[in-house]
Amino acid sequence: MSAEIITFPNSQLTPRPATSVAALTVDAEASHSAKPPLDTCSRASADRRRKKKGRSRSVEPNIQEIRGKNDKLSYRVQIRKAASGKSMSFTKTFSKLAMARKWKKRKLAEIEIDGVEFVARNGDTVADAISARLAKHKNLGRSAKQQLVWVMKSDFGKKKLSDLSLESLTELADDMLAEERQPQTVAGYLTILVNTLQWASRRGFSLPIAAMREAMEHLWEDEILARSEERDRRPTIDELNRILDAAAANKRQKIPLAKIIVFAIYSCRRLGEICRLRWEDLRVEKQEILVRDMKHPKKKKGNDVWCSLTDEAMAIILSMPRDGEFIFPFKAASVGTAWRRHRDSLEIEDLRFHDLRHEGITRLFEMGMAAAFVAKHSGHKNGGCLYRYEHVEQEGDKLAGWRWTLRAAGCVDSA
C-alpha cells in the first residue's frame, strides 16, 4: 500500500523555530520564581506540625500514642464531656496501651452511671475544698484562715476527699497532739475543718461527710479533744521493748524508728522537733543543739532554742549517717504513722509518741536533777511548766541497764 501526500490549496507549511534546551531551562526558572514565596513563619509552623505528627498519633478514639525520648511509647487517654454549659476533661497517661484502654472503659462507665459532674469532683482533695471556701468567704476570721491554710498545706490536705474516713481524721488529731498542740487547740482546727468539708459537700464536692461527723463524735467521746493537759501516761519497759523489737524486725521499713523512739526519750524532744534537727546546729564540744521553731504559746516561728543533750542522745545523733542537711531526714507524719502501726499491732492502748517526751523529763527528775538542769534539756523557759514533773514518786534511773540504750546508738548488733 502506497502513501499519498494531499496538498490543500492556498496552504503553506510554516516551520516552527527550534527551541534550545537552554531556553527551556531559563523559562522554567522564571516560572518558578514568579510563584509567591512561602512565608517564613508558615514554613516553620508547617515544620512543627510535621514534627508533632511524628511524635504522636491517634490509636483509637480518646487514646493517643506519644513517642518520647529514646522512642519510648506512652498512651494518653483524654475524654471530653460537657455538663452545665462547661467542658470537662479527664486525662491520664499510661505506659501500656492495655492499661489505657482499661482506664478509658472504666471512666466512661463511671460517667454513664454517676454523671459527668460527680466523676469530675471525685478526684478533689481536702486542699481543693479548703481553697474553694477561702476564695468564697473572704471575711473568715484570721484564726480560722490560719488553721485552714495549715491543714491545706499539710499532708492531710493532699488526701482525696473520697478517701476520708474516721481513721484519717483520728490520725490527724494524733499528729497534731504529737506536735504538742493543746487538745483545745486541736479541737479548734478539726471543728473549722469539718465545717468547711460540710460546706464543700453542699456545693458539689464528693466526700463522706457522715463519716467526718462520726469521727468528731468519737474524738470528743474518747476525750482526745477534751483530755486534761496534765497527761500522766508513761510507757513501761515491757511496752517499749515490744515496740522497739517489732520496729527493728521490720526490714522493709526505711525509717530508723527504733533510733528515733529512744532518742525522743533521752533528748526530751517532740516528734516535729526531731525531724527538724540540723547537722549545722549541732555543737559536739558543748553537747548541745539548736532546736528551731520550738513550740511556744505566742511565737509560731523563729523560737529557736539551744538545748543540752544527754550522753545517750548525743551517742544516737553521732550514729546517724551524715548524708544531708537534717540529722533525721524523715517526715514527722511518716514517723508518727509507723509508730501507731507498731503500737496498734501489739494492742498497746493509749500510748502516744508525745508521751516519750514526758517520760524523758520525768526520768531526769527521778534521777535527782534540778529544775534548771532539766529545763536546759527540755527547752522549757517557764519553770511553772515543770512543776508537775517535780513531785515524782520514784527515785533512780528507770532506764539503767536498758538494752536499747546501746542498740539505738549502734554500739551493739541490733539484729
Topology:
Layout: H1 21-33, H2 40-55, E1 56-60, E2 63-67, E3 73-83, E4 86-94, H3 97-114, H4 116-121, H5 126-136, H6 142-153, H7 166-178, H8 183-201, H9 209-221, H10 237-249, H11 257-267, H12 271-274, E5 282-283, E6 288-291, E7 305-308, H13 311-318, H14 332-345, H15 355-366, H16 371-378, H17 387-390, H18 403-408
Antiparallel strand pairs: 1-2, 2-3, 3-4, 5-6, 6-7
Helix pairs in contact: 5-6, 5-8, 6-8, 7-8, 7-9, 7-14, 8-9, 11-13, 11-15, 15-16
Walk me through what this model shows.
This protein has helices at residues 21-33, 40-55, 97-114, 116-121, 126-136, 142-153, 166-178, 183-201, 209-221, 237-249, 257-267, 271-274, 311-318, 332-345, 355-366, 371-378, 387-390, 403-408; strands at 56-60, 63-67, 73-83, 86-94, 282-283, 288-291, 305-308. With 415 residues, it is an alpha+beta fold. A 4-stranded antiparallel beta sheet has the order 1-2-3-4. It has a 3-stranded antiparallel beta sheet with strand order 5-6-7. Helix 5 (126-136) runs antiparallel to helix 6, helix 11 runs antiparallel to helix 13 and helix 15 (355-366) runs antiparallel to helix 16 (371-378). The chain is globular, with a radius of gyration of 36 Å. The chain starts with 20 loop residues before the first helix and ends in a 7-residue tail after the last helix. 24% of the residues are buried. The model is unreliable at 1-9, 11-15, 19-26, 28-33 and 46-53 (pLDDT under 50).
Question: What is the chain-wise order of helices and strands?
Answer: HHEEEEHHHHHHHHHHEEEHHHHHH
Helical content (DSSP H or I, runs of 4+):
40-55%
Distance between the termini: 117 Å
Overall pLDDT: 80
Give the strand content.
5-15%
Q: Which stretches of 5+ consecutive residues score pLDDT under 50?
A: 1-9, 11-15, 19-26, 28-33, 46-53
Strands across the major sheet, in which order?
1-2-3-4
User: How would you characterize the largest beta sheet?
Assistant: 4 strands, antiparallel
| Helix vs. strand class | alpha+beta
Total DSSP E strands: 7
Gyration radius (Cα, Å) is: 36 Å
Shape by Cα distribution: globular
What's the number of helices? 18
